[in-house]
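Input chain follows. Return structure tokens only.
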Amino acid sequence: MNRSFSILSFTAVAAVLSTALILPACVSPPPAASNHDGDALVERPEPTANSVVLVAHGMACPKCVSNADLQLMKLDGVRAVAIDMKHGFITVEVDPDHRPTRDDYARAIDAAGLTLVSVHEAAGGAATP
């Protein structure tokens, strides 16, 4: 009976410790506008005529990045996606003749389990509302 209790105790402790290590894995980083690398403020990538830069919160693990990439690539007009997980920046290369809307981006980011903070586009290349 004493041996059964020890195995049961070990199993319970192992479960608690593994949960404590797994749950914090997808905690959202601080807002991208206030992220720092050392002492230098990290600048958001600049959008071009054929790209859009999204700022999203909630990317803290490779699975988050994969989910965002998969959801954005499903949008008509998206050619490529590059994600900076550390700072929450997502650069989306788009077809200039068939650009997704801000609502399209919001739905894709929401479906990935993230929060869309902002959409940045080059002047004259704005997504339709």
